[in-house]
Write a structure and sequence with these properties.
globular, 12-stranded mixed sheet, 53% helix, 892 residues, alpha+beta, 30 helices, 14% strand
């Protein structure tokens, strides 16, 4: 019979045990009577020989192997009765834990969804990403290399261990049905959905014959675009829409939530139908490749196979593929931008939870000391150390579990507002929800907290001098317990110092960053992306004429003071980093310093309010056929020439198309520097000083080679300076710039003031959270100091009564208590300051714009903490000073 059956049949087995003991006692008694003893004496000797009935029963119960569970059930019922009797204490403990565990669990819910959850595809461990690699490519700056479309087709044809799918980004405008609208188009290979294992919601995927040049235009809609544009009409399949002046037949609807690289997109078209030049040369690498390992294939086999294919392509296409290899890695979500921030926040909220645990441990220790006589009585009756420890830990575990359950409920309510409040777009936000991992984490934290704050009272259970404890009552506090109380308070103060200093550093950082000069006059300026009509994108002369018309029409809108075009708007996503050199002896590409390049129209300087330091900016004479010119900023002037007087000098640049460095660009050539302008914080107020590339130069869009006018037109934005509130001219500008065909649109409109403010959104977000954490830590630490001092002062009532009777004044008694508090506070500040220095280094590495300057934060936060701690100590000190010596001595 196993222990589970023995537990279920406990009552039956108790009856059997009682009958068996009675049988043995009667048998022994009968034998003694037969030997001639008096019946009363025989029964006495039989009982002595058998042993105490209850002790024998306990030994038999231990032999069953279910005693531990019976003891646990007994301890659990006792803990529940104790909670009911001390409802106030239990409610405070559960609420404190719920807040700490709830915040920690909510943070873990986000981390689980963003960082830990596997990709939402069937068998995601079989998915890989394929990248290109060359030794001269700076992957840290540009990211991993993509593949050319022709290389992708070769890999599809030659690979025996992978099913490869590719996609690229090619935004466009939908002009029918309805109003013209910019859409985020993904050009995909016909097998993308099957490789990822994603069935369509409606319709079908592309056919292989549709993924070819000249095939019938077909399109798949994303779920969100289907809902937005067609109102989720179930009869959408078979209808059509117009993109790039071509009518596409809708053949499928993607499932809700389907994303590539973390973004949903709007429409999908076959990548093979794109016949633009950059798709048909091996120097251009626009295709992102994801693949699935075929059955029985391993990652090592795949890498060996792609190495051989890469060598074959390098031999066959030496002009484009020499020195180029290919890398295969497991497919992972792109969450690098938020990874460190999420772990930082989890660490911070865990510190608050530790303070809560220390507070509860201190309270439970005080309660355990007050229960000294009860625990001593248990020891006197034979309870072992392990038995008392289990009892104490069971009581704390009940509190921990109750707080954990409430905390998980709070987390279920809190994580969605947290995600919505996140600055910008949180990667994989749609995958953040409660699941079994979160529940396991919440329960594990609950039991761990119960163990942590229940350990101290369990260890301090009385096992020595039990007779003295039983005689002394519950007012004696042994030295070890005092030290534990002090240790809890010191740890709370140390943790509070860490969070306060972190919040102080973030506050100082935000104040410093908001005072920085952006390099532009952002008042009454807005930027918007611009999509030209597809009808003008075929010929370079049409593209240039269309942009001229856009600028001329924009100037005619009432309220517009000036308008210009630029391919890279400051403080917005996107940049073009290009290598340069101040002499004709240009080093290899990987040895060149980098600068940010921006293609602009002549009025850009006027619109943005950038200071002209020397020379001139562009004018209408800087066009194709004239000498190539650039304008550099003061950072580039200092880095390249070491002085500001650089007008008229030359700068050698590898290519003016740094975003596509191998797209058939001409070799490096010289450009005349015609002006020097002020530095613009391209990376935002927080990130610019720490950016690896800060130097900037500008070149005229009018001098862009014809081969790149179409691609650059897809990247261009307009910037507008107004005489009125920017929002008041937006609708007028939108109508005026629709063009003669009515299918030109402006989108993603942002004022420069908003872009500047958004660049500091992560710092404000972290400051708010750390401010809340630090406030909670300060409050909990103050409550802990108050509780410990009030308890210890109450235990020292007889001593204080003797001091007062001996002539001690009220001020001396108050100083006695405050001095004890001040000692704990100063020791906690010392320990916390050391930890805060380490935390400051972590903040510096994690948060953009934070400088290692904790001393200023110490100067502000430490006095606040000391003041709050002394304020929390004042009431126990005041009560101590009012102790009546006669009453105190009677208590002794």
């Amino acid at each position: 019979m196993n222990w589970w059956h023995r537990l279920l049949r406990r009552k039956t087995m108790e009856d059997q045990l009682e009958k068996e003991l009675r049988f043995h006692l009667e048998q022994h008694t009968a034998q003694l009577i037969a030997n001639g003893l008096d019946p009363a004496e025989a029964r006495r000797r039989a009982r002595l020989g058998l042993g105490g009935p209850e002790q024998v029963k306990e030994e038999c119960r231990d032999a069953r192997g279910t005693r531990w569970l019976e003891d646990f059930w007994q301890d659990l019922r006792y803990a529940m009765r104790t909670m009911r009797k001390q409802a106030g204490f239990a409610a405070m403990a559960v609420l404190t834990l719920a807040l700490g565990i709830g915040a920690t669990t909510a943070m873990f819910t986000v981390i689980n969804g963003v960082l830990l959850r596997p990709l939402p595809y069937p068998d995601p461990n079989r998915l890989v990403a394929v990248h290109g690699h060359t030794d001269t490519w700076n992957a840290e700056v540009y990211g991993e290399q993509n593949l050319s479309y022709l290389d992708f087709l070769d890999f599809q044809r030659l690979s025996r261990s992978l099913d490869l799918a590719g996609f690229s980004f090619n935004p466009t405008t939908v002009s029918d049905p309805g109003e013209p609208e910019y859409v985020d188009r993904r050009e995909i290979s016909s097998n993308l959905f099957s490789v990822l294992g994603i069935p369509l919601l409606q319709g079908r995927s592309f056919l292989p014959e549709e993924d070819q040049p000249g095939a019938t235009p077909v399109v798949i809609l994303s779920y969100s675009y289907w809902q937005r544009r067609f109102a989720g009409d179930g009869k959408t399949i078979g209808k059509s829409l117009v993109m790039d002046q071509h009518r596409y037949t809708i053949v499928g609807i993607a499932p809700a939530g389907f994303r590539t690289l973390g973004e949903e997109g709007d429409v999908f078209t076959p990548i093979g139908q794109n016949t633009q030049t950059y798709m048909r040369v091996r120097r251009s690498h626009p295709v992102l490749v994801e693949a699935r390992l075929r059955p029985a294939s391993t990652l090592a086999q795949v890498r060996a196979e792609l190495e051989l294919i890469g060598l074959h392509l390098a031999e066959q296409y030496r002009d484009t593929n020499a020195g180029r290899s290919f890398v295969v890695d497991p497919l992972r979500p792109n969450v690098r931008s938020v990874r460190s921030t999420l772990w930082l926040l989890l660490g911070a909220v865990s510190l608050v939870l530790l303070i809560a645990c220390a507070n509860l441990a201190s309270l439970l220790l005080a309660r355990a000391i007050s229960r000294g006589r009860e625990l001593g009585m248990r020891v006197a009756l034979g309870a072992s150390r392990g038995r008392l420890v289990r009892q104490c830990l069971t009581e704390s575990a009940v509190l921990g579990l109750a707080g954990g359950v409430l905390g998980i409920l709070l987390a279920a309510i809190a994580f969605r507002p947290f995600v919505a409040f996140w600055p910008g777009a949180l990667p994989r936000a749609e995958e953040v929800h409660l699941d079994w991992r979160v529940l396991v984490f919440g329960l594990a934290v609950s039991f761990l907290c119960g163990f942590l704050f229940g350990l101290a009272p369990a260890i301090r259970a009385p096992f020595r001098n039990v007779d003295a404890i039983l005689r002394s009552g519950s007012r004696t506090v042994v030295g070890g317990s005092r030290q534990l109380h002090r240790g809890f308070v010191i740890s709370e103060i140390a943790i509070a110092i860490v969070l306060l200093v972190a919040a102080g550093m973030l506050g100082r950082t935000l104040l410093r960053l908001t005072a920085l000069d952006t390099g532009i006059d952002m008042h009454n300026v807005f930027a918007a992306r611009m999509a030209l009509s597809p009808s003008v994108l075929e010929k370079p002369e049409q593209i240039r004429a269309a942009w001229k018309e856009v600028l001329d029409r924009g100037r005619s809108v009432p309220g517009v003071r000036a308008i210009a075009m630029v391919d890279t708007v400051p403080m917005r996503e996107g940049n073009n980093q290009i290598g340069y050199w101040p002499s004709a002896d240009v080093p290899p590409e990987d040895k060149q310093p980098l600068a940010l390049a921006a293609s602009v129209s002549p009025d850009y300087l006027r619109v943005m309010g950038i200071a002209l330091r020397s020379g001139r900016f562009f004018d209408d004479h800087d066009r194709q056929g004239s000498a190539p010119v650039i304008v550099i900023d003061e950072v580039l002037a200092q880095e390249a020439f070491g002085r500001q007087d650089v007008v008229g000098k030359k700068l050698w640049i590898e290519s003016l198309v740094g975003g596509f460095p191998n797209a058939g660009a001409a070799p490096s050539s010289s450009f005349e520097i015609v002006g020097v302008v002020g530095h613009v914080r391209q990376w935002g107020l927080a990130g610019d000083d720490q950016a690896r590339v800060r130097a900037q130069f500008y070149y005229p869009f009018a001098q862009l080679p014809d081969g790149f006018t179409r691609r650059w037109s897809e990247l261009m934005s307009i910037v507008v300076r107004t005489d009125v509130e920017p929002s008041s001219v937006e609708s007028s500008l939108h109508r005026e710039l629709r063009g003669s065909t009515g299918d030109q649109v402006i989108y993603e409109v942002h004022t420069m003031e908003n872009l500047v403010q958004d660049s500091l959104a992560p710092q404000r977000f972290l400051l708010l959270l750390f401010g809340i954490f630090a406030g909670l830590a300060l409050l909990l630490a103050s409550i802990g100091i108050y509780g410990v001092l009030a308890y210890l002062t109450n235990q020292r009532v007889p001593e204080i009564g003797v001091r007062v009777a001996m002539g001690a004044s009220r001020h001396q008694v108050m100083w006695l208590v405050l001095r004890h508090s001040l000692g704990m506070v100063l020791l906690g500040v010392g320990v916390g300051s050391v930890a805060a220095l380490a935390a400051a280094r972590v903040l510096q590495r994690t948060v953009e714009g934070v400088q290692f300057a904790p001393l200023s934060a110490f100067a502000v936060t430490i006095p606040v903490l000391v003041f709050a701690a002394l304020l929390a100590s004042f009431l126990p000190a005041l009560r101590a000073s009012r102790i009546d010596p006669v009453t105190a001595l009677r208590q002794e």
